[in-house]
Amino acid sequence: MAISTLLRQLLVLPLTFERSTSRCMLDLKMILSYVDSLPTGDEKGLFYALDLGGTNFRVLRVQLGGKESRVVDTEFEQVAIPQELMHSTTEELFDFIASELARFAAKESARFRWPQGRKGEIGFTFSFPVRQTSIDSGIFIKWTKGFAVSGTAGKDVVECLKEAMKRQGLDMRVSALVNDAVGTLAGAHYWDEDVVVAVILGTGTNACYIERMDAIAKMGKLADGSGKTIINTEWGAFSTGLPLTVFDRDMDSESINPGEQIFEKTISGMYLGEIVRRVLLKMAKASALFGYPVPDKLSTPFVLR
C-alpha cells in the first residue's frame, strides 16, 4: 500500500474517531517540547549537533551566518550503531556515541573555530519518546525502532550524554534536547518563518506542529515567550483501527514490542524491508518465485534493510 494511501486512511477513519476519540488521543503521547522560541533567521555562530534517531546517528558542526548568508559552512559524519549496542546497556551505548563525538570534534578544521573563552555548545536530537522537563532535560520513556537498551528507564537522557562525554574528556554544554521532528521544524523555521509542521519518515516516523499555549491543557500556567510552542505528537505510536495485512500482524506479534508503535511499523524504514521479505517468502513458497528450494536468506528476519 502506498504511504500516501495509508496516510489518507489514517486521517479519515470516521468510525474510529467518532466512537472513541478519547482512546485515539491516548494512542498519541502529544509531548511538550519546551521549544517556545523558534529561530528567526538572525542566529549566528558555531554549533555542534548530535542526532540519535535510529540505526545510525549523526554528528554535525555548522556555522550560521544569519539572514545574509544563512548556513555558512557545515560538516557531518554518519555512524552506524553496531547491532549488539542496540541491545546493550545505557552506559555502553552512550559511551560509544560520546567516543564518536569526541573523535569528530578532534578533527575540527580551521574553518570552524570557537571564539576564545566560549564553551562549546551542542544540541542533542534524541528521537525516542522522552518526557521533556525543560529545554535541556528529559526523562526517558521507552525505546522504539528495534532498540532494547537496558537501564535507561526513568533516566534523564541529557545526563546520560553528559556523563559519557565526561568519561571521554569532552568539554561541551548540552544546550537543547529535541526530538528529530521538533529539530526539523526548528531548522526549517530558520529558513522560512511560515513553517508550522514537520514530518519524519525515516527509520521511524513522527510529526510535530506549532500550537497555541492557551490551547494546551497540560501546559498549566502560560510560560513567557511567543505564546506558542511545538507539540511532539509521537504519531508512530498510533495503534487504533489501522488497516493491517497478515504480514503486518505477524511481524508485530514477533517484534520486541507487540501491539505498540503500529503506525510506525506499517510505514517506516525500520520495518518496510521486513514486510517485503515476508511477502516474498510467502510467494516463494507458494509459486517457486525464486525456484526450489526457497533461498535460505529469505527466512532471515530483517535481511532486507
Strand order of the largest sheet: 4-3-2-5-8
| CATH topology assignment of the domain at 29-233 | Nucleotidyltransferase, domain 5
Strand content: 15-25%
SSE series: HHHEEEHEHEEEHEHEEEHHH
CATH superfamily grouping of the domain at 29-233? ATPase, nucleotide binding domain
CATH domain class of the domain at 29-233: Alpha Beta
The outline comes out as: globular
Report the CATH architecture of the domain at 29-233: 2-Layer Sandwich
Query: What is the CA-based Rg, rounded?
Result: 21 Å
Give me the secondary-structure category: alpha+beta
What's the helical proportion of residues?
A: 25-40%
Count of β-strands: 11
Model regions low in confidence, pLDDT < 50 over at least 5 residues: 1-22
Task: Compute the number of helices.
Answer: 10
Main sheet properties: 5 strands, mixed
Signal peptide: 1-22
Catalytic activity: D-fructose + ATP = D-fructose 6-phosphate + ADP + H(+); a D-hexose + ATP = a D-hexose 6-phosphate + ADP + H(+); D-glucose + ATP = D-glucose 6-phosphate + ADP + H(+)
Protein name: Phosphotransferase
Enzyme class: transferase
Features:
305 residues; Nucleotidyltransferase, domain 5; globular; disordered N terminus; Hexokinase_N; ATP-binding
Can you tell me about this structure?
With 305 residues, the protein is α+β, with helices and mostly antiparallel strands. The protein has a domain at 29-233: 2-Layer Sandwich (Nucleotidyltransferase, domain 5). It is 32% helix and 24% strand. It contains ten helices and eleven strands. It has helices at 3-11, 14-19, 21-27, 66-69, 90-106, 157-167, 180-191, 246-253, 262-267, 269-287; strands spanning 31-32, 44-52, 56-65, 71-80, 120-126, 130-134, 137-140, 172-178, 197-201, 205-212, 228-232. The strands form three sheets. The protein has a five-stranded mixed β-sheet. A four-stranded antiparallel β-sheet has the order 1-11-10-9. A two-stranded antiparallel sheet has the order 6-7. A hairpin with a 2-residue loop joins β6 and β7. α5 (90-106) packs across α6. It is globular. Residues 1-22 have low confidence and may be disordered.
